[in-house]
User: Fold 2-keto-3-deoxygluconate permease from Phyllobacterium trifolii.
Amino acid sequence: MQIPVKSAIDRVPGGMMVVPLLLGALIATFFPDTPKTFGSFTGALFTGALSILAVFYVCMGASIDFKTTPYLLKKGGTLLSVKVGMAVVLGIIFGHFLGEGPVTGGLFTGISALAVVAAMNDTNGGLYMALMGQYGRPRDIGAYSIMSLESGPFLTMVTLGVAGLSAFPWQTLVGAILPLVVGMILGNLDRSMREFLSRAIPVLIPFFAFSLGTGLDLMKVWHAGLLGLGLGVAVVAVTGVALFFADRATGGTGVAGVAAASTAGNAAAVPAIVAAANPAYAQAAAPATMLVAACVVVTAILVPLVTAWAAKNFGRPDDHEDEPASEPAAPVYAGAPEAH
Assistant:
């Protein structure tokens, strides 16, 4: 007898990230001694998020192709710059009022500059490419090869530093991006390595999600869910408007910009990595992880609806307008953990 476990998980927005994360949080909340009781490999799975993520980012980097046309550089670079720029602005605002720590009381308990920046910085690649496959052009799909540079903690660390919060030593910044760079070099030196490493990306997602979940307190989930709902709506509204006009400025209809106004599933891993690199963010990391995870789900639901509305009201891009003579293929697997 077969039980459709994967198909059931796939029905949940961001399921391969969210479901294991919540499973880990359930075990940590109701059976907190599990890793100590079983130890060995079982215990390591509960505490090995950073090691798994290091491998994940090597594989992610391998999926990024150096060979892109000027259009992809223009489109992807513009959307990347605008999205990160919005995160910087909001990081400065929240950092001014909150510093590195989270709000500790009231309706907004748990919100922090770290949570806002992590949610804003990273686009759901699988969702973007799927929506562009339906409402955009093939070369708009390929633009994510540039946008996928958002993946990982590097830009979040840079953004927090630019916002005037606790900075990171250069060694930490290099260490945050080094696995991605190593993967990019391997993938571009050898196409077979790109295909080999890219296939591992979706497999690693539930494992690091589970490990991250074991550090969360589910007693705070309901409150985080309400805040996560608000944060998800804010990501779509704030970045969606800016990206809409940025896309139109590069010759698009705005649809590609709206499709990029989401939060990637692997963004939920960023707060823990940032806190591990700089203890000043330790207090904010756990609530930020839950908030960003909730934001992943909310944006995965809202962005397709808003993108469909934008395509209906502003039209779909012309497939033949300024089309390049030859077009590179989209990345084998360009950072889309939340698409599974």
